[in-house]
Amino acid sequence: MALFKRLAETARPALSFTLDGQPASGLLGDTLLTAMLTCAEHLRGSDFSAEHRAGFCLMGACQDCWVRLEDGRRVRACSTLLEEGQAISRDPGRQP
Amino acid sequence: MKPVVIVGAGPAGISAARTLLDHGVTPCLIDENLRGGGQIYRRQPLGFQRSARQIYGFEASKAQAAHRTMDELAPLIDYRPQTLVWNAEDGRLDLLDNGRAESVDYARIIVATGATDRILPVPGWTLPGVYSLGAAQIALKYQGCAIGERVAFCGSGPLLYLVAYQYAKAGAKVVAVLDSAPFSAQCRALPALLGQPLTLAKGMYYRAWLTAHGIPVHQGATLQKIDGEQRVSGIRWDDHVLACDAVAFAHALRSETQLADLLGCEFAWNTLNRAWLPQRDNAGRSSVNVVYLAGDGAGIMGADAAKMAGERAALAVLEDSGVAIDQRRPAVLEQQLAGIQRFRHGLETAFPFPEQWAAQAPDALMVCRCEEVSAGEIRAVVDEGHWELNRVKAHCRVGMGRCQGRMCGLAAAEIVAERSGRGIEQVGRLRGQAPIKPLPFGVEVQP
Predict the structure, then answer these.
(1) For the stretch B262-284, what's the b/e string if a residue is b when 16 or more beta carbons lie within 10 angstroms of its beta carbon?
(2) What does the pLDDT read at residue B417?
(3) Is A94 a domain residue?
(4) What is the number of structural domains in chain A?
(5) Across the interface, which of A8, A48, A56 has its CB nearest the CB of B372?
(6) What's the pLDDT score for residue A17?
(7) Is B195 within 8 Å of B389 (Cβ atoms)?
(8) DSSP assignment, residue B13?
(9) Which single residue of A19, B46, B201, B351 has CA 20 to 30 Å from B220?
């Protein structure tokens, strides 16, 4: 299920990526956050209870949208544009 | 020669850069975003097709003018997009530029760091599907998306009606608008708001448009809880329950002041903003000799004021550097800014801060979403005798997480003040720390 709903700009070229190993697809110009939340419901698990989080401020302030790329980099999903073939993984967070 | 550095390419930063360049001074403009415009005039990625009118509505011509100026300036100045300023010390800024660590020395610096939403948490606010009002607007402006299928807009402030209107206009389903401010407050504010009739008319238009299109607007309605297990399923207020799958909420804006703090600027309590703000004179000079402040980062006044304040601060930089300027211009700008300041007082009357929030926040409410600290845990620290905010932070970690208190700091202060029986201005403010935003491991450092 998706969290976000596309209302406009849907004619852009498609980009394929993987989310936790599963094939997924976004559009050129999507942020990682948009690409992930138009096909999934969360971005990460929280640090102290592993509850699902899906970002909050979308402007690089809240730091609640960090995801991991296959080269090991951790990036803010709200301020990183999607690239073809990216392998994005979600941090499950930590249980108490 | 060390450059004049401007931090932030929103309305204030762009206008400051333009003014400096027009007087023969080539600035270095550093901005965290991919493209200039700031949050208010945030520009969609290349390849998107919507017109400025579709994205910015009544503000289209102002947004286009800001973008045009940015495009003209970019090749002529030292423009550094996608660059984070994470520390400031002794005339030097530490930067993170696309994963590379760099530094830049400055002769003078204009801080135009803007604002984020002012958040008063409610139970359920960390659920997927809950966003700040600014976030909901960015999803639409920048990505052409709604934050859900059925969206509720809550909180207060001018942005509340604007974003709800923009969503409905773009084809999203807006299930309700909850304004915590009573209608009577907006009536009381009218005399002050009439000073900027155009801005007032736009606000009234959004409100009327929503009603005319059958969107329920509840005034004096305070969001109490957001329901859901894995994601949002509804909201509650008073005796009402309403199903929805997304919520956008905020109570106006808060200034982004960390950099001014690291630069050593003196702060003072500002009653209008209900916040500690770096002090500035009418020209934008801070308490530190070579540091200037412009735009919402030094007190919320909106985009039009930010543009004027950017120009005014740049003129102050020029005056202080011995460059000739049109001596009539500063007075014109300062007079216009004073007019907007009066309007701002009216807005504060129309959308008053919900002072009862702290007393009503349940103990189980998670205030700090990074460190997962509840209102009850904060109160327990206060009950041990602590009331200074940094001391409370040391004891329970509220505000100590990745966002450095940007989302929870003001709410935590409200709880500490209420519990300790002190005024909100008496409990102190969270100190800024470097790095002001998280840095990744493995940063390349310049030799």
Answers:
(1) bbebebeebeebbbbbbbbeebb
(2) 98
(3) no
(4) 1
(5) A48
(6) 98
(7) no
(8) H
(9) B201
Best of B143, B247, B369 to substitute, by most chain A Cβ atoms within 10 angstroms, is B143
Q: Is the pLDDT of residue B441 over 80?
A: no
Residues of A with Cβ-Cβ distance to B48 under 8 angstroms: 9, 12, 29
Angle of helix B375-383 relative to helix B409-420, nearest 10 degrees, comes to 40
Task: Give the count of domains, chain B.
Answer: 3
Same domain, B247 and B258: no
CATH number at residue A79: 3.10.20.440
Whichever domain contains B261, its CATH number is 3.50.50.60
Do B247 and B282 share a structural domain? no
Q: The domain spanning residue B366 has which CATH number? A: 1.10.10.1100
pLDDT of residue B198: 86
Handedness of CA B280, B282, B288, B294 (dihedral sign): positive
Res. B445: pLDDT tops 90: no
pLDDT at residue number B318:
98
CB distance from A16 to chain B under 8 Å?
no
Within a domain: residue A6?
no
In chain A, residues with a C-beta closer than 8 Å to the C-beta of B99 are: 73
pLDDT 10s digits, B182-194: 988 888 888 888 8
- Domain extent, residue B243, equals 119-251
Other Cβ atoms less than 10 A from the Cβ of B76: the count is 11
Residues B82 and B197 grouped into a single domain: no
- The alpha-carbon gap from B411 to the nearest alpha carbon of chain A, in Å, equals 14
Is pLDDT of B153 > 80? yes
In Å, how far is B372's CA from the nearest CA of chain A? 7
How do residues B402-426 score in pLDDT, each as one tens digit? Answer: 999 999 999 999 999 999 999 999 9
Residue among B128, B147, B403 whose CB faces A61 most closely: B403
Q: Which of B203, B221, B251 delimits the end of a domain?
A: B251
Q: Which two tokens stand for residue B133?
A: 């009002």
Question: What number is the average pLDDT over the span B106-123?
Answer: 98
